[in-house]
Design goal:
single chain; alpha/beta; FAD/NAD(P)-binding domain; Flavocytochrome C3, Chain A, domain 1; five-stranded parallel sheet; five-stranded mixed sheet; 30% helix; Succ_DH/fumarate_Rdtase_cat_sf; EC 1.4.3.16; flavoprotein; Fum_R/Succ_DH_flav-like_C_sf; FAD
């Protein structure tokens, strides 16, 4: 390909809410969005049933919202990031409204919902449990109206192209036009999560941590990868992926019961943080019991996605409790970024679920993922718009083609890997199980080398090594052999250089990638 001396557009890898928020906020600056599927398909954002948390009620404030977020994060949140994001939440809702998102409520008032870990009603929903789909619809409509955004569909990024000094200078893609090298000194990872690595997940099965693998292979630092949030209420009807039952259903009055009809959790326990509820559900299942969600008495009627999923399985949630179980839902850890979304690799930004911003800590507060995608998408776009550093160093490369990697690029994780992750990196973990999982994956690495190892296996190995390094129980990481929580909170770090060695831990708060003044 022939490159121009002119600075090329920003490249955004991923077409969910986080990536498209960056692209829209960048306008009219040119931007290329690379979507691994047809636009709007396969994005986890559209699957989000919970809404967007924002302090909009008369009895609420961003300060209270921040306190609840930090409490849920179990010591690993960055308080400055939390305060920044919760303060920006009301504006994020208004921005989405301006794009055309239709939220529940009337006469300009929001119908605010209550979800686990929140002490106030502050969750803005759309169509009951269809928030993600409605928000993404509005964003996609806005993208279609924005001429500065170019979308390449069915295009996967298989490698980040780096200069000799380790800075990003483009991406290698595979798509309808074959293998292609797209040049840019500014690349944003917005690739979503890794839930598809687990046997029971609420995520698209293609969500196997591709962005984590890209970043790791490029030498970026990764943080707290062991912190994978399992949602306590996935519909347990043998469907893969498992249909999510929104936390808002419990907020509206549904309760968890055992197979004998007794309340699983007393008092307000049904609305405890997700890690607490998931552990209670898992414990009952391990005892050989059943856990059901009782949304009878008219509660289920307000949640069309729940009703539809149940009816597809031959269940009627209006008349009978429905079976639920925990499922891999959200990756709280990710690529380490600073408060502008910059990673430790020059020219590489990360946003959304793939990034570790410091907002979620060890356990994400309900309805914070869509919020983070919009707010941090705006912060990344602002930094890109003001980024003279990379524009100044951009030098157009000569003609040339970078060969593609020899490793396999599966769209989904194999069954053996998903079983391994469920068994040893689920709700409850222990040292022997983590050692077994790590050893299994390490032997695969030893056989084929890093360049030959497929991305799902690489990400699983990074998660397992990080979990081995955390010899305590905290947030979403519960070890039966290490049930106590350390007095000092520590972050777990790992990168490409440490892929064959244990991850490191550092007392929090750590130094971030490059924190702006």
């Amino acid at each position: 390909m022939t490159a121009s001396a002119e600075e090329p557009p920003v490249i955004v890898v991923g077409a969910g809410l986080a990536g498209l928020s960056v692209a829209l906020r960048l306008a009219p600056q040119p931007c290329v969005v690379l979507s691994p599927t047809r636009l709007g398909l396969g994005a986890a954002s559209a699957w989000a049933q919970g809404g967007l948390a924002a302090a909009l009620g008369a009895d609420d404030s961003p300060a209270l919202h921040a306190q609840d977020t930090i409490a849920a994060g179990a010591g690993l949140c960055d308080p400055a990031v939390v305060r920044s994001v919760t303060a920006a939440a009301p504006e994020a809702v208004r921005w989405l409204q301006a794009l055309g998102a239709r939220f529940d409520g009337d006469e300009g008032r929001f119908d605010l919902g209550l979800e686990g870990g929140h002490r106030r009603r502050r969750v803005v929903h759309a169509a009951g449990d269809g928030s993600g789909a409605e928000i993404l619809r509005a964003v996609l409509d806005a993208v279609a109206r924005t001429p500065s955004i170019t979308v390449h569909e069915d295009t996967r990024v298989v490698e980040l192209d780096l200069s000799p000094d380790g800075a990003v200078r483009g991406v290698l893609t595979r798509g309808p036009r074959g293998t292609e090298l797209l040049r840019s000194a500014r690349v944003v990872l917005a690739t979503g999560g890794s839930g598809g690595l687990w046997g029971c997940t609420t995520n698209p099965l293609t969500a196997t941590g591709s962005g984590l693998a890209l970043a790791a292979r490029a030498g970026a630092a990764l943080r707290d990868l062991e912190m994978v949030q399992l949602h306590p209420t996935a519909l347990d009807v043998g469907v893969d992926p498992a249909p999510l039952v929104s936390e808002a259903v419990r907020g509206a009055g549904a309760v968890l019961v055992t197979g004998s009809g007794e309340r699983l959790l007393s008092g307000d326990g049904d609305l405890a943080p997700r890690d607490v509820v998931a552990r209670a559900v898992d414990a009952e299942l391990r005892r050989g019991g059943r856990v059901l969600l009782d949304a009878t008495g008219g509660v289920a009627a307000g949640f069309p996605a729940l009703v539809a999923a149940c009816r597809r399985a031959g269940l009627d949630p209006d008349r009978e409790p429905v079976p639920v179980r925990p499922a891999a839902h959200y990756h709280c850890g990710g690529v380490l970024v600073d408060d502008r979304g910059r990673t430790t690799v020059p020219g590489l930004w990360a946003v959304g679920e793939v990034a570790s911003t410091g907002l979620h800590g060890a356990n994400r507060l309900a309805s914070s993922s869509l919020l983070e995608a919009v707010v941090c998408g705006g912060l990344v776009a602002a930094d890109l718009a003001e980024d003279d550093e990379h524009a100044a160093r951009w030098v157009a490369p000569g003609r040339g083609v970078t060969p593609g990697p020899a490793r396999p690029l599966p769209a989904r994780a194999p069954r053996w890997l998903r079983t391994l992750m469920d068994r040893h990196l689920g709700v409850v973990r222990d040292g022997p199980g983590l050692a077994l999982a790590t050893g299994t994956l390490q032997r695969r690495l030893d056989r084929v080398g890093l360049d030959g190892l497929d991305d799902p296996s690489l990400v699983a190995l990074l998660v397992a090594r990080s979990a081995c390094a955390r010899e305590e129980s905290r947030g979403g990481h519960l070890r039966r052999d290490r049930p106590g929580t350390d007095a000092l909170a520590r972050h777990t770090f790992i990168d490409r250089a440490a892929v064959s060695a244990p991850a490191t831990t550092t007392v929090a708060p750590p130094m971030t990638a490059r924190r702006s003044a």
